[in-house]
Amino acid sequence: MKAVIFDLDGVLVDSEPTHARALAKTLSEVGASFEEGRQVGWSDADVIQVCLAEAHLPAGAQAVACLLVRKTQIMLDLIEREHLQPTPGAHELISELKRNYSLALCSAGRRDEVNAILRAIGCDEFLTTRVVAEDVKHNKPAPDPYQLVADRLDLEPADCVAIEDSQRGVASARAAGCTVIAVGHTTLQSKLAGAHAFFSHIADLRSDLIANIHGSDSTH
């Protein structure tokens, strides 16, 4: 193992409810509805497109792009007002891992939102190698995001461990060839069976555990 790649929302920070509020407000402004929870692991573009189609509204690239801009505006305001905090244990794990491994971020989120959240939770300086929605043509669950992170680290995905919380995230990292650790912050363990290991909480993870899991299968 040479690197650990973190997902952001639902792993390092409990920001999924904030994303849900921003998406709900964005879609309500055009007469579409949104069901909280369906955004976990999905890109905003995919969520918006599906919700527009379900409301029988135009769901083409231009309509989605306009709503993405609006959603980011709302989300940035919420990030500033809600004072997001890192998931308990996240800072400690990053501090431990950075001594021996390269660290990176792989998020389905949009760049402005990702950067604002990282600054808010104090992780900006530790996760400077990052891939976000704008960097790939095919987002999670495609392998492209994790493959790109590995490329930017000048590593093979097999040298990397990914820490994820969603079905799409696990599928993306696994398809790229990473060892995948799932944490149960947002998604039932039964839905994360594709991961090599499952932990209820990121606070349960340590550097030695991650190294031992690399390429094996375990549940904790």
Task: Considering the chains and any ligands shown, give keywords for the structure.
12% strand; alpha/beta; globular; 220 residues; DNA polymerase, domain 1; 2 domains; seven-stranded parallel β-sheet
Q: What general outline do the C-alpha atoms trace?
A: globular
Sheet with the most strands: spatial strand order: 3-2-1-4-5-6-7
Main β-sheet, in a few words?
7 strands, parallel
Q: How many strands in all?
A: 7
What fraction of the residues are assigned to beta strands by DSSP?
5-15%
Report how far the terminal alpha carbons are from each other: 20 Å
CATH topology title of the largest domain: Rossmann fold
Low-confidence stretches: none
Q: What structural class do helix, strand and pairing data support?
A: alpha/beta
| Percent in helix | 40-55%
Which CATH architecture of the largest domain is right?
A: 3-Layer(aba) Sandwich
Name of the top-level CATH class of the largest domain = Alpha Beta
Total count of domains = 2
**Averaged pLDDT, please?**
95
Word description of this protein:
- This protein has 220 residues and is α/β, with parallel strands linked by helices.
- The protein has 2 domains: 3-14 and 85-219, 3-Layer(aba) Sandwich (Rossmann fold); 16-82, DNA polymerase, domain 1 (Orthogonal Bundle).
- 41% of the residues lie in helices and 12% in strands.
- The chain has 8 helices and 7 strands, in the order βααααβαβαβαββαβ.
- The chain has helices at 16-28, 44-54, 61-82, 90-97, 111-120, 144-152, 167-176, 207-213; strands at residues 3-6, 102-106, 130-131, 160-164, 179-183, 197-199, 218-219.
- Strands 3-2-1-4-5-6-7 form a 7-stranded parallel beta sheet.
- Strand 4 (160-164), helix 7 (167-176) and strand 5 (179-183) form a beta-alpha-beta unit.
- Helix 1 packs across helix 3 (61-82), helix 2 packs across helix 3 (61-82) and helix 3 (61-82) runs parallel beside helix 5 (111-120).
- The protein is globular.
- The two termini are 20 Å apart.
